[in-house]
């Protein structure tokens, strides 16, 4: 049978389907095929039938042409469907098998959403991946290529999740897929592949990493340099890269050298810190664990300081800039360097000629470093700074003193300086406030009061006297005389239901068990409850939950009058919780209801 | 209640969302009350919902294979997330308190028992020949009216096909398409939903804006199919019109192609029932059939007795999809009491009403593997014989043995014991996982001397007959390449 002829005929038939059978009458190209069909038809009758059908079409009038074309094509199609070729080109070879023994038993309902998330674009994909990860349903042979493919995803959080969580758990099974997918001239995704391969295989892929470092694209090069930081024999290569034209490459090389920490590497980093773009190396030097480097920087900085003091004009500006770079390099290792760095810091802050406007940034960095040294000697020096230079460093001094002095000493020394609105008072206040803030946030959740016994009890009265309500709220304790009066007076001055200070003051009154606190709260709700729009402050919710049960009825009345539906609903829920609470254990009940509410909201 | 594992509960869940929601209820400790009866046949409890009152839900295992779930929530899904959560809570080892059967459930159990008894009585009465099951009566005049309408509809379809062929596919523009769409809609009045869907398939093809050239060939094939459907359908219907008492055609799938939905009772009457069959699912796939407006959950099953490949199609029309159970991959062996086989050639569509399940064992894998066709010459011959009929399934699925799966420059091939090849194409079935990436990851032993479930496709443009492996069946497992 002549398949060639059949395929030709098929082409003509297809053409007529596209053009329309109306044009088939007397079609030249089709009619040319008829004689050949007839000829083969002598041996194979089915070709005669095709010839008949073709002739029927050629001679059919316009109206009947479609039926004829369909007849011809139906016959042809049936014949062609029996002629499908299954031959194979070339010489088939066995597949190089990666030999993964992973199962394929994940069901459609679990597998499909994960595959879709990995291979398509759109929202909600990361969530799906997290869920699949939690269900441990990513350990299936069929998802591994898709997971590794997702390293190239443009939505950065997906490749990150895949790289950090999924592939490390898949482990060795991911290696063959990562290997085949890796393109040394590729982009970010390939850099991730290289890092993963190294993470999974270690020294086995060292040659590959070196190759990427030598001849890879930028992303690959950066990844390779980072990985090679652990290899002393790569020192020469890294030194070479630290002189590269591209900034990214240099920076990566600095980090790698910092990790290496060999004498040559240290020398190079020091040299880089002196060069024009010295700022770029600061982070790398900070990351270096080899303190010999930092000690040399201290010596350099000391010399630079001398130069600063000698020089003038443009040269002085350059020297100050260099000094600034040196001091920033020391950040992060302060405590370890306490002994070596203290003389430098002392000299910096003791040299009157240096405490001028254009060295402000260096002074502050030096003062920060002083606190970071965290040694007794350093703090003693810090405390001394108290009154120097028009109390310019009073904030630093206070922080050092807080670490070293007793509570009373601290109060006695600094209380007077807090008063007023002078520049030094303000800087002391802000140091105080930031100390307090760090104490409040200790457990990850914002607390309402500083820890008991952390401060002298006189502070609160000082704050009240100065009208620093925020701090009064943090420092107030049950039984502090005059404080409730101060706080209620603040409420009388101004009480708004959605106001930060009002709620703070009320919360504090509840905290110090002020007897009339519930009544004050209720009054506020009565007069302004209607104004509460959109949401209910968490402190307000907490206080309502602390109310005695007997208030429930009135609260309900207030709730009914609320304008905003969702707040109203919320309020009613709170009231219901209050009503449902058991009568006894009045003291514990408050927290019990609160737990319940928190649970419900999560 | 050892059978109540998480996998078993997953299997009961109507969809993936319900699985997650059920588990989340347990995680969030939403169950305030968890009870179990002494005989361990009933779980019941209370679950916090959004309303004031908790939902009261229960799962009754008095019949272990088909647990009955009840819940006071308004969900239309069964089991709802609360009932699923109740079961997950049990599977995850939450403490259940022992309690008596609540009175309302005891009542419901009694009623169900009575219903069951009545049914059994009726069955035994029928078996003993006292009251033979009444043959379903056919309203003859209504039937004739229907057939006439069907013939009229086919006439309309024919006109459309001829017109399209006469004007040519190249001239079809947006206007023609919307006209065709309207006419396809009108076809809905003639009791031939199958033919209507075939027409919609054609419209769908032509709407595809991308790559017109590739579409032409498929459109041409579809026109041929429609043409043959009209011709064969009409002659069959005319014959039935002449003899309304003659039985429906069960030799071919013509009835189904025209749009008849076979009922199990009809199939039973026509004797298309296989008793006590054991089936192992070899592959599974869910897809959207836009022309028919439904989701299809398709399963391919190997018959452990004769090795034939059956297909199950669980159809979920878009409109009802939310309340219907989504099928899922099934890893065990299904033991169907009665297997209903739909008329048609090729891979017969099957269904069952009642079935038991058991875990698949190595013997089952061996059985399927040993029943795979060994000679590609014969398989290819059978496939070609089937697909030359324009009305046949264009993608038959076969179980074939292979000596090895190998690689050429153009792709993969299967080789049989006689050294004959079947070329592999990874694009016959659309799926996000790619065959060419998965095959080389498999262990070498899975790529030699095993069996594969393959789908065939004849590519009209290239004239090649190719296969896509859906699963590899070895003596110890089924490697599912799809789902």
TrEMBL record, chain A:
<protein>
    <submittedName>
        <fullName>HEAT repeat domain-containing protein</fullName>
    </submittedName>
</protein>
<dbReference type="Pfam" id="PF13646">
    <property type="entry name" value="HEAT_2"/>
</dbReference>
<dbReference type="InterPro" id="IPR011989">
    <property type="entry name" value="ARM-like"/>
</dbReference>
<dbReference type="InterPro" id="IPR016024">
    <property type="entry name" value="ARM-type_fold"/>
</dbReference>
TrEMBL record, chain B:
<keyword id="KW-0863">Zinc-finger</keyword>
<keyword id="KW-0479">Metal-binding</keyword>
<feature type="compositionally biased region" description="Basic and acidic residues">
    <location>
        <begin position="108"/>
        <end position="123"/>
    </location>
</feature>
<dbReference type="InterPro" id="IPR007527">
    <property type="entry name" value="Znf_SWIM"/>
</dbReference>
<feature type="domain" description="SWIM-type">
    <location>
        <begin position="55"/>
        <end position="91"/>
    </location>
</feature>
<dbReference type="GO" id="GO:0008270">
    <property type="term" value="F:zinc ion binding"/>
</dbReference>
<keyword id="KW-0862">Zinc</keyword>
<dbReference type="Pfam" id="PF04434">
    <property type="entry name" value="SWIM"/>
</dbReference>
<protein>
    <submittedName>
        <fullName>SWIM zinc finger family protein</fullName>
    </submittedName>
</protein>
<feature type="region of interest" description="Disordered">
    <location>
        <begin position="108"/>
        <end position="134"/>
    </location>
</feature>
């Amino acid at each position: 049978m002549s398949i060639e002829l059949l395929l030709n005929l098929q082409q003509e038939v297809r053409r007529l389907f596209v053009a329309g059978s109306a044009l088939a009458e007397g079609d030249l190209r089709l009619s040319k095929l008829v004689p050949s069909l007839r000829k083969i038809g002598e041996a194979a009758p089915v070709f005669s039938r095709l010839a008949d059908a073709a002739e029927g079409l050629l001679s059919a009038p316009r109206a009947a042409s479609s039926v004829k074309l369909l007849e011809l094509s139906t016959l042809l199609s049936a014949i062609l469907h029996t002629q499908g070729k299954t031959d194979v080109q070339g010489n088939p070879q066995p597949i190089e098998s990666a030999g993964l023994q992973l199962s394929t038993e994940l069901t459609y309902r679990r597998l499909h959403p994960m595959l879709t998330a990995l291979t398509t674009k759109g929202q909600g994909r990361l969530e799906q991946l997290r869920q699949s990860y939690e269900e441990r349903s990513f350990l299936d042979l069929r998802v591994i290529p898709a997971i590794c493919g997702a390293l190239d995803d443009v939505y950065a959080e997906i490749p990150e999740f895949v790289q950090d969580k999924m592939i490390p758990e898949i482990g060795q099974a991911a290696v063959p897929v990562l290997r085949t997918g890796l393109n040394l001239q590729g982009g970010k995704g390939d850099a991730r592949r290289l890092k993963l391969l190294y993470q999974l295989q270690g020294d086995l892929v060292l040659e590959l990493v070196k190759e990427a470092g030598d001849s890879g694209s930028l992303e690959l090069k950066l990844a390779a340099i980072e990985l090679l930081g652990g290899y002393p024999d790569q020192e020469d290569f890294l030194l070479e890269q630290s002189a590269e034209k591209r900034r990214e490459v240099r920076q990566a090389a600095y980090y790698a050298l910092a990790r290496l920490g060999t004498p040559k590497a240290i020398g190079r980093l020091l040299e880089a810190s002196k060069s024009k773009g010295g700022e770029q190396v600061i982070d790398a030097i900070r990351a270096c664990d080899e303190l010999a480097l930092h000690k040399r920087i201290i010596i350099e900085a000391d010399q630079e300081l001398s130069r600063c003091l000698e020089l003038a004009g443009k040269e002085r500006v350059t020297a100050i800039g260099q000094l600034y770079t040196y001091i920033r390099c020391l950040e992060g290792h302060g405590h370890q360097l306490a002994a070596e760095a203290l003389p430098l810091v002392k000299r910096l802050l003791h040299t009157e000629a240096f405490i001028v406007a254009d060295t402000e940034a260096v002074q502050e960095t030096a003062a920060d470093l002083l606190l970071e040294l965290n040694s007794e000697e350093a703090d003693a020096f810090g405390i001394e700074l108290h009154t120097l230079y028009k109390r310019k460093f009073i904030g630093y001094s206070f922080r050092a003193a807080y670490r070293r002095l007793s509570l009373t000493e601290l109060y006695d020394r600094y209380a007077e300086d807090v008063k007023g609105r002078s520049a030094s008072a303000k800087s002391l206040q802000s140091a105080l406030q930031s100390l307090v803030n760090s104490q409040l946030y200790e457990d990850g959740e914002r607390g309402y009061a500083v820890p008991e016994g952390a401060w002298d009890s006189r502070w609160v009265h000082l704050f009240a006297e100065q009208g620093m309500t925020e701090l009064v709220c943090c420092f107030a304790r049950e039984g502090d005389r005059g404080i409730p009066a101060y706080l209620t007076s603040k409420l009388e001055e101004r009480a708004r239901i959605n106001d930060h200070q009002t709620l703070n003051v009320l919360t504090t009154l509840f905290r110090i068990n002020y007897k009339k606190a519930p009544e004050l709260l209720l009054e506020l709700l009565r007069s302004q409850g209607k104004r509460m729009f959109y949401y209910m402050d968490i402190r307000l919710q907490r206080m309502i939950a602390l109310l005695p049960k007997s208030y429930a009825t009135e609260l309900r009345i207030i709730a009914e009058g609320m304008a905003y539906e969702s707040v109203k609903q919320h309020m009613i829920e709170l009231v219901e919780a209050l009503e449902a609470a058991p009568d006894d254990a009045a003291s514990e009940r408050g927290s019990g209801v609160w737990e319940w509410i928190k649970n419900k909201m999560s | 209640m050892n059978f109540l594992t998480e996998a078993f509960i997953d299997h009961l869940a109507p969809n993936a969302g319900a699985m997650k929601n059920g588990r989340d209820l347990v995680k969030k400790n939403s169950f305030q009350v968890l009870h179990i009866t002494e005989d361990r046949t009933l779980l019941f409890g209370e679950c916090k919902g959004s309303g004031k009152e908790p939902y009261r839900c229960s799962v009754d295992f008095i019949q272990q294979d088909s647990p009955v779930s009840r819940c006071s929530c308004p969900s239309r899904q069964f089991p709802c997330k609360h009932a699923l959560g109740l079961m997950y809570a049990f599977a995850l080892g939450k403490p259940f308190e022992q309690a008596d059967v609540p009175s309302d459930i005891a009542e419901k159990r009694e009623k169900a028992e009575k219903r069951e008894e009545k049914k059994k009585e009726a069955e035994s009465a029928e078996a003993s020949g006292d009251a033979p099951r009444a043959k379903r009566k056919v309203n003859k005049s209504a039937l004739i009216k229907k057939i006439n309408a069907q013939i009229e509809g086919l006439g309309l379809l024919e006109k459309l096909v001829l017109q399209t062929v006469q004007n040519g596919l190249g001239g079809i523009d947006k206007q023609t398409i919307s006209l065709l769409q309207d006419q396809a809609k009108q076809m809905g009045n003639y009791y031939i939903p199958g033919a209507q869907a075939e027409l919609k398939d054609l419209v769908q093809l032509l709407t595809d804006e991308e790559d017109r050239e590739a579409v032409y060939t498929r459109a041409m094939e579809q026109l041929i199919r429609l043409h043959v459907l009209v011709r064969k359908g009409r002659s069959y219907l005319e014959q039935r019109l002449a003899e309304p008492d003659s039985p429906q055609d069960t030799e071919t799938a013509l009835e189904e192609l025209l749009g008849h939905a076979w009922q199990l009772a009809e199939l039973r009457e026509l004797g298309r029932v296989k008793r006590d069959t054991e089936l192992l699912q070899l592959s599974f796939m869910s897809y959207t059939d836009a022309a028919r407006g439904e989701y299809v959950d398709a399963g391919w099953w190997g018959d452990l007795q004769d090795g034939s490949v059956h297909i199950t199609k669980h159809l979920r029309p878009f409109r009802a999809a939310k309340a219907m159970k989504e099928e899922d991959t099934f890893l065990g062996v299904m033991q169907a009491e009665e297997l209903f086989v739909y008329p048609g050639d090729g891979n017969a569509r099957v269904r069952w009403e009642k079935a038991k399940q058991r875990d698949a064992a190595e013997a089952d894998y061996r059985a399927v593997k040993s029943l795979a066709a060994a000679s590609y010459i014969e398989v290819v011959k059978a496939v070609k014989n089937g697909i030359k009929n324009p009305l046949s399934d264009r993608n038959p699925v076969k179980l074939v043995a292979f000596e090895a799966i190998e690689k050429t420059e153009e792709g993969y091939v299967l080789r049989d014991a006689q050294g004959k090849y079947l070329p592999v194409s990874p694009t016959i079935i659309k799926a996000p996982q790619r065959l060419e990436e998965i095959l080389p990851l498999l262990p070498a032993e899975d790529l030699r001397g095993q069996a594969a479930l393959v789908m065939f496709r004849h590519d009209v443009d290239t004239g090649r007959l190719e296969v896509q492996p859906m699963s590899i069946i070895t003596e110890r497992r089924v490697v599912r390449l799809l789902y």
